[in-house]
Amino acid sequence: MAPIAVGDALPDGTLGWFDENDQLQQVSIHGIGAGKKIVLVGVPGAFTPTCSSQHVPGFIKSAEELKSKGIDEILVISVNDPYVMKAWAKTYAENKYVKFLADGSGSYTHALGLELDLTEKGLGLRSRRYAIFADDLKVKVANIEEGGAFTISGADEILKAL
Amino acid sequence: MASALMKARRSPALPSVAVMALRRAFAAASMGCDIVSAAPGVALQKARSWDEGVSSKFSTTPLKDIFQGKQVVVFGLPGAFTGVCSAQHVPSYKNNIDKFKAKGIDSVICVAVNDPYVLNGWAENLQAKEAIDFYGDFDASFHRSLELDLDLSAALLGHRSQRWSAYVVDGKIKVLNVEKVPSEFKVSGGEVILGQI
């Protein structure tokens, strides 16, 4: 699958998520994104340093500003199971808007064409690091890193592009 | 064991189901089974932070380093951060660690099909790193070799392991307890195996 790019339609997919009432839900990307402005944040792995201490915090801090610019949802997506995502989300006590979604089988990451083989590091097939802005399921911004580096996929770049 | 299998094959009277059972018993984890030879080439990944991973060049630990010449109590569970695993299974070992040491156990090990970084985050969350060595079987190869793997896709967990415990001496399984279903916690806890050593 070729990596998703600006102008593409966001594919549909089902991700796992523990909601505010601690209920395990299945979220459909088309369901949550149709007619809305959403930001998808892809990370290689929960509990890994760049993801935990740089990439995700940037979006948690900028969430208010993103919302004021019309963003309806900020979704962090990782190839981890929903229990791990829930535990990871809890480490961000100050988080109000960012949802942590589980692409446990990696199938949505595969549909986006954004897999990254991190088998050597003990992680298996994961996701590339990215930040995507989609308006009514049409990709407007796609900032995709090469490997796990953190250069263009932050919240600031998305804010600038809005 | 091997000679019994040969005899079974040669005897035409033996129903094929029994042959299959013999063959399965030979491959799957069972009492007397040697863990290291049942899973040749399999290595586990010690729970670690990413920095530790980088500095150790993402090294893995071969099974023989964990089991050979040692008395080990090992338990496996479906997933880090899940209910029974966090609230009951791990604590039952953590809280009994002194009793295990008193019985001559060299190490208590927890294995799960998770990556070593998630396992590290979980072990720190449970404050169990002092008592227990956590190892990741990130591609389920260890559990698959012992036929203790399980498809938990319905619970959105994917390929995982059963809930089990074992007492292993110099790589040989002396005691093996496997729950009928992973949501149960009847035979695989610390107290049970403490009484079996």
Biggest sheet overview of chain B: 7 strands, mixed
User: Termini of chain B, distance in Å?
Assistant: 24 Å
Structural class of chain B: alpha+beta
Rg of chain B over CA atoms, rounded to whole Å, is: 17 Å
Question: Which outline of chain B best applies?
Answer: globular
Number of strands of chain A: 9
Over the alpha carbons, how many angstroms does the gyration radius of chain A reach?
A: 14 Å
Strand content of chain B: 15-25%
Report the structural category of chain A: alpha/beta
| Strand arrangement in the largest pleated sheet of chain B | 2-1-5-4-3-8-9
The total count of helices of chain B amounts to 10
Q: Which regions of chain A contain 5 or more consecutive residues with pLDDT less than 50?
A: none
What order do the helices and strands of chain A follow? Answer: EEHEHEHEHEEEEH
Distance between the termini of chain A: 27 Å
Number of strands of chain B: 9
Low-confidence stretches of chain B: 1-12, 14-27
Keywords (chain A): Antioxidant, Oxidoreductase, Peroxidase, Redox-active center
Function (chain A): Thiol-specific peroxidase that catalyzes the reduction of hydrogen peroxide and organic hydroperoxides to water and alcohols, respectively. Plays a role in cell protection against oxidative stress by detoxifying peroxides.
Catalytic activity (chain A): [glutaredoxin]-dithiol + a hydroperoxide = [glutaredoxin]-disulfide + an alcohol + H2O
Family (chain A): Belongs to the peroxiredoxin family. Prx5 subfamily.
